[in-house]
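Hi, here's the filled form for the chain we discussed.

Project: internal
Contact: R.S.
Residues: 91
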Amino acid sequence: MTARPLLAALALAATLALGACFHQDSKADIVKKAEHATTKDELRKALGDPDTLNKAGPLEEWVYEASDGVVRFPILGERVGPVVTGEKTKK
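And the returned structure, exactly as it came back:
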């Protein structure tokens, strides 16, 4: 096998991977995907790991970045609380 087909395959894989990084769901999409999640495990299965994880004692806040803001899930122990949506913070 020559290097040219291998390089073409690697370039295609890199392009597809980069494209996936720039696509973000909307707040509504994230909320819909997680609407039946009541535990941390269910939330992780629905959305993956959070973009930001805030902790204060037994309370956690899982934050997911959306194309039009952020979606926050408060978690106490293993239970997911009511979802909160908001605007992206300015950097």
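Let me know if anything looks off before we file it.
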